[in-house]
Design goal:
It is built from 15 helices and six strands. By secondary structure, it is α/β, with parallel strands linked by helices. The protein has a four-stranded parallel β-sheet with strand order 4-3-5-6, with helices on both faces. A two-stranded antiparallel sheet has the order 1-2. The longest helix has 15 residues. The structure holds adenosine-3'-5'-diphosphate. Adenosine-3'-5'-diphosphate (A3P) binds next to helix 4, helix 7 and helix 13.
């Protein structure tokens, strides 16, 4: 068994960041002008090399693990914070959550597996991996919470985010980005493939499929649903407390959720990007031209019609 001192050394966050942030990963190509990696044809973030993907395929799952799964920019951080507030993990004596996780809910793709091994059960992790690559183990009780967001707002949120990520080294236009997005030439591939693969599993006993727009409209109701799914029973008052602590403004001010402490490792030096950017439904209206919307709607219809999955694009 590891001593506490050893655990502390091994879970030094700086070493984790060096592995991902201290190096130039991936490449640009004629077709895709931001740095990226590829695995089995899927476009990925630059640091997600074949070696890392093979490691992920071997990820040692643990009974009770909870995976928050999203396509990028679908409010992963919001879901993760809600879950953390519902089920605060009890840390081993002498260790704080910050020691183990660096204050954030770990992202499976980026995390150091030793950190995750030190994380007491139930572990909560976030991932953007498609269904086929997400860790599974039929012998264990693993739970998945999928949060989907309407693709117009996802595209807008992703555009702003990708422009400021230092490792992507890209500052293209909205028009250029929308072209990538519609082709599925963005990190984690096609939005539609991702969402629909998980939608097909929405009725699995260990999957809870949610939508950002519903959560925006009725946070307390959905927080109660999430708690029930995880095996907690929250009073109305507790659910309201979680809702307030996880509101957009609270998370914008919270150093564990606004990622500001990592900004020098994540964003371009000159960027004043705020991870908690707008947090609304409908920002797409400030970005899509009429022609772009018509083309996008055609793609949307060709992928979504008949699936039973649909979204609200504005909230009154
Ligand atoms: P915007 O860029 O549209 O503002 P992710 O965590 O998957 O990277 O998603 C980030 C998006 O979720 C950002 O969208 C962010 O503002 C939004 N978000 C994060 N926390 C939120 C909250 N508590 N309420 C509403 N939106 C939130």
């Amino acid at each position: 068994m590891m001593t506490q001192a050893l655990v502390k050394t091994e879970i030094n966050l700086e070493s984790k960041n060096e592995t991902i942030h201290g190096k130039v990963w991936g490449q640009k190509t004629e077709e895709i002008k931001f740095r990226h990696s590829r695995f089995n044809g899927l476009v990925l973030l630059p640091y997600m090399t074949e070696e890392r993907m093979n490691l992920l395929a071997e990820f040692p799952t643990r009974d009770g693990d909870v995976y928050v799964v999203t396509y990028m920019k679908s409010a992963t951080t919001w879901l993760a914070q809600i879950i953390r507030e519902i089920a605060k993990p009890t840390m081993p004596e002498g260790l704080t959550e910050e020691d183990v996780l660096g204050g954030t809910v770990p992202c499976l793709e980026a995390a150091n597996f030793q950190h995750l091994a030190a994380y007491p059960s139930p572990r909560h992790m976030v991932t953007h991996l498609p269904y086929s690559l997400t860790p599974k183990n039929s012998q264990q009780n693993l739970k998945y919470i999928y949060n989907a967001r309407n693709p117009r707002d996802v595209a807008v949120s992703m555009f702003h985010y990708m422009r400021v990520l230092e490792k992507l080294d890209w500052d293209g236009t909205w028009d250029e980005f929308l072209g990538y997005f519609m082709k599925g030439d963005v990190p984690y591939g096609s939005y539609f493939d991702h969402v629909l693969e998980w939608w097909a599993h929405r009725n699995d006993e260990n999957v809870l499929f949610l939508k950002y727009e519903d959560l925006k409209k009725a946070p307390v109701e959905y927080i109660t649903k999430i708690a029930e799914f995880l095996g907690y029973s929250l009073s109305r008052q507790e659910a309201e407390r979680v809702s307030e602590e996880c509101s957009f403004s609270a998370m914008k001010a919270n150093k564990n959720t606004n990622y500001d402490r990592y900004r020098h490792q994540i964003y371009k030096k000159e960027s004043d990007f705020n991870f908690m950017r707008k947090g609304i439904v409908g920002d797409w209206q400030n970005h899509f031209s009429h022609e772009q919307l018509a083309e996008f709607n055609q793609l949307y219809a060709s992928r979504m019609n008949g699936t039973g999955l649909d979204f609200e694009f504005t909230i009154q």
